[in-house]
Design brief:
Number of domains: 1
Strand content: 15-25%
Shape: globular
Distance between the termini: 42 Å
CATH class: Mainly Beta
Radius of gyration: 20 Å
Order of helices and strands: HHHEHHEHEEHHEEEEEEHEEEEH
Strand order of the largest sheet: 1-2-10-7-12-5-4-3
Largest sheet: 8 strands, mixed
Number of strands: 14
Helix content: 25-40%
CATH topology: Jelly Rolls
Amino acid sequence: MFSVKRLVESNSLKSIPSNYICHNENEDYDSMVNETENIPTIDFSKLISSNSNDRSMEIQKLGDACRDWGFFMLINHGVSETLRAEVLRLSQCFFDLPSEEKKECIGEKLFDPIRCGTSFNIKVDKTHYWRDFLKCHVHPHFHAPSNPLGFSETLEEYVTKNREVIGELLKAISLTLSLEENSIHNMMNVESGSQLLVINYYPPCPKPELVMGLPAHTDHGLLTLLMQNELGGLQIEHDGKWIPVNPLPNSFLVNTGDHLEILTNGKYKSVVHRAIVMNKKAARISVGTANGPTLDTIVSPAPELLSEDNPSAYRGIQYKDYLLLQQSRELERKSCLDYIRI
C-alpha cells in the first residue's frame, strides 16, 4: 500500500514529487490569513448544567457560534485527557505498522467498514494531498482495525463518548432554533445514525509550503468533532480570510456540516476549512468523527423553520446518496450543497 509516510521515510525523497505540488491552494496564503481572530469557545458543562441561567446563556452563545462561525472550541466536555492521549498514541502506532499488517484495512468502496489510504480520492484527484488516512464506520455498527493491540477497544470507548457529547450538542442546537429539545434527534434518527471515524496523518514535509494536507472543503453530516496532537494546520474560512485554529488544551473543535445547513434551511452554514502542512520534522495527527443521520434518511429543511418569507432553499436528498455524490468527486472548495440548492 502506497502512503505519503513511506515516501517521506524513503531515502530517495530529495524534492517534492510534481503530483503533490499545490500551486493554487497555497498562492493566497500570506495575503488571506488573519491571525488575530479566535473562534468562539463553548463550555459543555454549562450546556448541560442544572443552573437554568447558565444553560440559557451558553445555549445563546452556541446559537451565535453556529450562525456566525460554523465552528467552535468545546471545553469541559467530560472526555478524559487520558483517553484522548491514548487514541493519539495508538493512531501513531497504527500508521507505523508495516504495510502487510494494514492489508485488512484496504477497502476500496465508500461503505466498506474500514478503509485506509492516501490523498482524498486517489482515482480522481488531479493533485495528491500530503495525507494518509484511516476511516472506520463506527455506528450503528462498530468497526476498527485489530492492530495495534488495544486500538479497537480504545476507539470504541472514544467514539461512544463522542456520541454522548454530540447528542447533547444537538439537543442544545435544537433549542437555539426554538425547536423542541429532541427535534433534531427525532428528525435525523440520531440514536441509530451514522458515525464515521477519520484519523488523518500528515507526515513532515521538507517543503511544506508546496503541498496541501486537505484542500478547502466542507463536511457532510450534522456535526464533526475533532481533536489533534500539538501540531497546528487547521484553518477555517471566515469573512473572506483564513483563520488558523489554535485549540485550547483538552478541547474539541466542532464544526457544522452540510446536513445541518440543509436542516436549518441555511441559517447555520457548513463552513469551509482546510488542512495545511506546517512542519518539516514531525507529523500532525487529527481524529475526527463525522456524525449524521441514518443512511436512508432523507434530509430536507425542517418544516418548522419554513414560512412564506423563508421557503425551502434545498431539495431533500437521501444521506447515502449525498455521501456517494461527495466522495466520488474531487475535493474542492465548491460544496456539494450547490447541487441541491433550489
